[in-house]
Amino acid sequence: MSELPKVSYSGYLYLDEILELQKPKGTEHGTPIHEEHMFIVVHQGNEIWFKQLLIELDSIMKMFSKYDVWENLDLAAIISRLECILRILRIVVEHTAMLDAMPPGAFMEFRDYLEPASGADSHQFRLIEIILGLKTSFMKDKKYLETLKNDKKFVEKCKKLEDTAEKTTLLQYVEKWLESTPGLKKFREKYREVVKSMLAENEKKIQQEPDSKKQLRYNNRCQIFQWITQDVVPPQDVVPPQEVKQPSNLNPKVPPKIVTTTLSEDARLAAIYINHCRNQLKFQLPFKLLSLLIDMDCLMMTWRNSHSLLVQRQIGTLSGTGGSTGHSYLISTIG
User: Fold this and answer.
1) How far is the C-alpha of 256 from the C-alpha of 11, rounded, in Å?
2) What's the whole-number mean pLDDT along residues 73-80?
3) Which of 35, 224, 246, 326 is deepest in the core (most CB within 10 A)?
4) DSSP string, 78-103
5) How buried is 76 (Cβ within 10 angstroms: 0-12 exposed, 13-18 middle, 19+ buried)?
6) What are the C-alpha distances in Å from 110 to residues 31, 122, 229, 314, 316?
7) What span, in angstroms and rounded, lies between the C-alpha atoms of 122 and 199?
8) Is 0.85 topped by the overall pTM?
């Protein structure tokens, strides 16, 4: 093996090039604005972390795409990648919070230099959304596509987004994996027995409870349990917030209803199964995986919420530089 060329710390990291990439527009126009440099540093730093986050997600997606049976999924490696993603998201949340150091209204001094650019233009963040499961988020956003046309790599970035949207998402991979959980059929039968027992207990409480409000609550709960286990469909106002378009696997005779759901019924039941058996060795890693996915979702919402509060602090109810409704638009993306 030939001798490797000697490199310096600065040379290996291309620091000279990186440190030349912060170019405040105010300075270029002869009116330097102190806060603009930090604004650029924070956003550039976030984009670098987004790049690493995409690398971690890509690794996870490859592992999900290659496994054949439930037990063969490399859960330890996926958990390691997810833990890395959570650390990145925590850094991004804290990193963005640096902008809270700007006095209220400081952004207004240089925001005109940004138009029509917007943080919503972030190509990498859109990719992250699509990979996680929001497959149509960018295609419905006409303003995003319009502002993206100012980007020199518009065609290339749009194609990347469209190609990614055609692929299986992380949500779909997790759903498929959950549906293949061994022992799910047997658990469903036991789960039905437990629900029936709870149903009987609640019916007793209805008969014994003199308080009409508590009676109504118990009655609603009973009807939901009946919907799960018997040929009874509860009134619309007590239907649980997971409707399905196919008959229930717990009760195939339940007529289909049009409701919104994120995971299939089998996947949701498998998650309950894994949670119930989380202390068993076989289910400890699966439970850890599901817990990390929940943590990731919470951190995404935390970042969105802190970003929306930052925007409100700086520009109030004004529209965003990209033409969105600003703070109200950011609030609508949380949840």
Assistant:
1) 63
2) 94
3) 326
4) HHHHHHHHHHHHHHHHHHHHGGGGSP
5) exposed
6) 10, 19, 61, 12, 16
7) 50
8) no
